[in-house]
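Structural prep section.
Before we set up the soaks we want a predicted structure of the protein with tetrahydrodeoxyuridine in place, mainly to decide which crystallisation condition to try first. Input record follows.
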Amino acid sequence: MSNEELFSAAVKAAEKSYSNYSHFTVGAALLTTDGKLFTGCNIENASYSLTICAERTAVFKAVSEGYTDFAAIAVAGSGNGDFSKACYPCGACLQVLSEFCSDEFKVILADGEYRLSAFLPNRFNEESMK
Ligand code: THU
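Run finished without errors. Recording the tokens verbatim:
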């Protein structure tokens, strides 16, 4: 799947965004190493801190279905229907992604392709506790 196709899947996933409070819609499209696609959207709550981001929705959907090997994620966010500005993943989502993904894992945004290591050069992980 091309970066453009993955990004389009993220934009489509944002249609399901439940963002009554921020009115900022986010979609994520997560590709497994064996080519399966999991999408997610942000889901807000009247108790604001219970909101979950699109990226974590996609990761948790995939892991709960038994998929833990990922190649790439596309993220699309917008407050006005224009998804051309990059929506950078938040720190909480980066930490969750880092549990399953290598430094080379691809992050596809509106402004291009990044590697996970660009956002999280040093991680707290299992190794940190040894
Ligand atoms: N949001 C995401 O879904 N992903 C991000 O990477 C950044 C922020 C959501 C959370 C909240 O519903 C809204 O965007 C505004 O913060």
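Observations: Residues 3-129 form a domain with the Cytidine Deaminase; domain 2 fold (CATH 3.40.140.10).
Flagged for discussion at group meeting.
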